[in-house]
Amino acid sequence: MNISPNANTQPRDENSIANALAGSPLGSDFHEGSDNPVTQYLAVELALVWQAFERRISDVPVIKKLESGQFTLDDYKVLLLNLRQQVSEGGRWLSRAASSMENDLFPIRSALIVHAKDEHRDFLMLDNMYAGLGGSLEEIQTTPRNIGSEIFTAYMFHQASQTNPVQMFGAMFLIEGLGSKKAGPWGGLIKEQLNLAEEDIIFLRYHAEHDQEHYERLKSALRLPQITQERAEAIVRMARTVGRLYCLQLEELNNF
Questions:
Q1: DSSP string for 26-65
Q2: What is the rounded distance in angstroms from the CA atom of residue 64 to the CA atom of residue 184?
Q3: Which domain CATH number covers 140?
Q4: Residue 72 domain-assigned?
Q5: How many domains does the chain have?
């Protein structure tokens, strides 16, 4: 049986950890020079989560087709159609998480509110791209979530509804990491393979550019004194869970 790697089964020798840290969306400046053990813990554990996620998502059929040069216009339209419903919920679960933060976590609440404001209109780009590629605007606006996205969305709202859901930073690490590390290269591959205009990949280009800024905010939030070891462990667990669920929604394309 082929068991996909995860952060619990990956090698933890010095070289393996160094390689994981080098590829982490957090970057080396997050932990270098810090003597905070919680920061060091987050740097290593989230790097391992990201490394395992990269390997898993490259095995998802639609991503494997893209990265091997076999992507078609139909593949792209199916991808947009299936991502739209999940993306449209992002601002809502961020806002829910912010509203669940008590006053002693005011800095974290503020960070989530700013992030929700940035994200809540992103799905409109997907609508416009889908219509521009010949798809029906009504179709992308009314298609239900696939079963993977259904599970993903339910989990996100469940976690966001807990009291002081600091663990949501684990989801942000994973999702914003996709934007900062994957959206640009994937957008370039799609544009090249399908001979598309820049406006046809604007969602991916936007996230490639703006998620770098979002990541700087995330790194600042992860260094806050309110991030205790217990909360850091919850952040890592949620990042690992979201990585699996994100892949699941891509594995279940058009399974409504």
A1: T-GGGTTT---HHHHHHHHHHHHHHHHHHHHHHTSHHHHH
A2: 16
A3: 1.20.910.10
A4: yes
A5: 1
Where is pLDDT greater, at 5 or 176? 176
In a domain, 21, yes or no: no
The encoded tokens of residue 89 equal 């919920």
Q: What is the mean pLDDT of the chain?
A: 93
Rounded CA-CA distance 43/32 in Å is 9
Length of the chain: 256
Closest CA to 125 of 207, 17, 52: 207
Q: For the segment 11-46, what is each residue's pLDDT rounded down to a tens digit?
A: 888 899 999 999 999 998 898 888 999 999 999 999
Q: How confident is the model at residue 124 (pLDDT cuts 50, 70, 90)?
A: very high
DSSP string, 117-133: HHHTTHHHHHHHHHHHT
Any domain includes 28: no
Q: How far apart are CA 89 and CA 74, in angstroms?
A: 24
Which pTM was predicted?
0.93
Structure tokens at 75: 């593949």
Domain range holding 217? Answer: 36-251
Has residue 174 been placed in a domain?
A: yes
